[in-house]
Amino acid sequence: MRLHADTQGAGRRTAVLLHGMTGSSESWWRITPLLAARGFRVLALDLPGHGRSPRDPELSVERAAQAVAETVDAVVPGRPAVVVGHSIGGTIAAAAVASGWLDPELAVYVDAPVRLRGGADRATAVEEYATERLQRTVEVLRASKPHYSDRDCVVEARAAVHFDPVTAGALAAAPGGTWTPRPGSIVVRADPSHHVDADTAAALVEDGVTVRSIAGAAHAVWYSHPDAFVSALPELFG
Q: Which helix (H) or strand (E) holds 94?
């Protein structure tokens, strides 16, 4: 499965960006030009069932991870300098790294769950995602997510239009699993976080993963705390 990729920058080093559930490659609109200015060629992908990428009614974490790896290899052969994955995008990135399909010099996981329960009732999950999609309008996002800028609301509402609940429901119904970042990776988490709690963060540090917490941040850390997010990653932004 070839995924849609938006590219910016002409540097020799490649940065791959993977958005979260219901988002799109455009969710990184603040981050992409910063990385391009730092000399990266930036590939922001639309995950399966999002943006302009294909739908997949049998999607699993592994299928998504393989699609990401194959797309990156087709667009820019060679080893990426960095992969940044948010939420489910981070879980998919971790699965691609663990499987050996993707071997970035550095992997950054932004408030991404290490474990997925999986095994949800497919019909129920599809219905819930369909309802969520309808609620992600500019007006509702402005009211429910006060940390979003006007552009954030427009970008995420536009992503919702292209979001496929059937693909997301298939992922929720697929088997769960654990995909732990390898030593040397970086985790940037909200504090507190529903996705990377304090115990998980401590276990990651013990395994050789660097964990950086941003107090009071929202799940989409760079939306609520853009300056703190950039400051937390001097490896990328200097």
A: helix 88-98
Which candidate, 63, 68, 85, 8, places its Cα nearest to that of 39? 8
Confidence check: pLDDT of 39 > 90 = yes
Whole-number percent of the chain with pLDDT over 90? 97
Q: What angle do CA 214, 220, 224 make, to 5 degrees?
A: 65
CATH number of the domain that residue 184 is part of: 3.40.50.1820
- What is residue 25's DSSP assignment? G
Average pLDDT over residues 56-76: 97
- Give the model's confidence band at 74: pLDDT under 50 very low, under 70 low, under 90 confident, else very high: very high
With H, G, I as helix, E, B as strand and everything else as coil, classify residue 9. coil
Residue 191 lies in a domain: yes
For the cut 90, the answer to whether the pLDDT of residue 179 exceeds it is yes
- Using a pLDDT cut of 70, give the percent of the chain over it: 100
Task: Please give the backbone phi and psi of residue 103, each rounded to the nearest 5 degrees, phi first.
Answer: -135, 70
DSSP assignments along 171-230, one per residue = HHHSEEEE-PPPTT-EEEEEES-SSS-HHHHHHHHHTT-EEEEEET--SSHHHH-HHHHH
Beta-carbon contacts of 61 under 8 Å, excluding residues fewer than 6 positions away, are 91, 92, 95, 116, 171, 174, 177, 179
Strand 115-118 relative to strand 106-110, pairing: unpaired
What six digits make up the tokens of 24?
A: 């799109």
Among candidates 24, 17, 26, which has minimal Cα distance to 46?
24
Domain interval for residue 86: 5-115+180-237
pLDDT mean over 37-54: 98
